[in-house]
Amino acid sequence: MQRLDPEGTEQRVREAVTRRKVTVRELEPGLSRVTADVPTAQGVGVFNRLRDMAAELYEQNATEKAEAEAAGIREGQGRGSGDCRVPGRHDGHRGRGCANHGDR
Fold first, then answer.
1. What is the pLDDT of residue 58?
2. I need a labelling partner for 43 at 20 to 30 A (CA). Which of 4, 88, 89, 102 fits?
3. Does residue 82 lie within any of the structural domains?
4. Burial call 9-37: b when 16+ CB within 10 Å, e when fewer
5. Which residues are registered as beta bridge partners of 34?
6. What's the rounded Cα separation, in Å, for the pair 63 and 85?
7. How far apart are alpha carbons 22 and 17 in whole angstroms?
8. How many CB atoms lie within 10 A of CB 84?
């Protein structure tokens, strides 16, 4: 196309540059959508980097969770139901008590 209409191609590229943008929109608490109107090569690079970062975070979170669970078991502080998150609040236990707070 560029060989047939070099001026038209240059004009389309100039117009495309003015439309480039990156936005972020919160979908709900803890979840957002990022959009990017960028040149294809950069867009593919951004996608690949985000995918790699997500995989790294997933692995890191899984490792940290396993380590925390193992530490809790070793220290005798395992949660009775796995639901309690706040000391003194046992509504998540549905009447089963909480091993964290000694009220089995």
1. 93
2. 4
3. no
4. eeeeeeeeeeeeeeeeeeeeeeeeeeeee
5. 24
6. 20
7. 13
8. 20
Domain that holds residue 30: 1-37
Q: Is residue 96 part of a domain?
A: no
- 23 with 44, same domain: the answer is no
Residues 23 and 54 placed together within one structural domain of the fold:
no
Residues 82, 77: Cα–Cα separation, whole Å? 11
Task: Based on DSSP, count helices (H) and strands (E) in the chain, helices before strands.
Answer: 2, 2
Q: Are residues 4 and 24 in the same domain?
A: yes
State pLDDT tens for residues 51-90: 999 999 999 999 999 999 888 877 665 444 444 554 444 4
Taking CA atoms, 40 is separated from 16, 20, 32, in Å, by 12, 11, 22
Q: Token pair for residue 62?
A: 């899984």
Give pLDDT, residue 14.
87
Residues 5 and 33 in one domain: yes
